[in-house]
């Protein structure tokens, strides 16, 4: 039976390289790059992000992810690989760090991506952020305030850790291609989290 097409996700803090690496990785794979906030959600996204309700924001992003999962499934069934610049791990880890009290149970049949946790030295990550030419939302500011908690929350998810410090985007993509050629897992329906379907509380210290 032939291998199923790759489904790959990039995770990590702001400035780690997700949005830069995703289209390059997709091009290298011959994959479809899929936005995890689909176009029909964009206008409402601005409204939700302008408010201060953590639970409402988390519910919005979960809804966007469940909606785009249908598109991801269609591509995978058709034999087309998929790359996303974040998936459920980012939504759950960020909102847990922001203080959300929602306990989320994910369906067992979600497509399970091969996930890369992009990390970067703090100084370089801040330089990348300062070089960006796009507005900074209040939630971006909060993400910086709780960056350590987000990193700790990510520990609940199975991911390959890739340090992008000092590397060009092309070198990061080459590292990923080498990693998967040495035994990276292909897409198949399994729970997203390391623990059955539920993101645990943010640990007090890194695991």
Protein architecture, described:
This protein has 207 residues and is an alpha/beta fold. Helix content is 45%, strand content 12%. It is built from eight helices and seven strands, in the order E-H-E-H-H-E-H-E-E-H-H-H-E-H-E. The strands form two sheets. Strands 2-3-1-5-6 form a five-stranded parallel beta sheet, with helices on both faces. Helix 1 crosses helix 8, helix 3 runs antiparallel to helix 4 and helix 4 packs across helix 7. The chain is globular, with a radius of gyration of 16 Å. The termini are far apart.
Based on secondary structure, the structural category is: alpha/beta
Compute the separation of the termini in Å. 38 Å
**What is the makeup of the main sheet?**
5 strands, parallel
Shape designation: globular
Q: Which range does the strand content fall in?
A: 5-15%
Helicity range: 40-55%
SSE inventory with pairings:
Elements: E1 7-11, H1 18-29, E2 32-33, H2 42-49, H3 54-77, E3 82-84, H4 88-98, E4 111-112, E5 114-119, H5 122-131, H6 138-145, H7 147-154, E6 160-163, H8 169-181, E7 188-189
Parallel strand pairs: 1-3, 1-5, 2-3, 5-6
Antiparallel strand pairs: 4-7
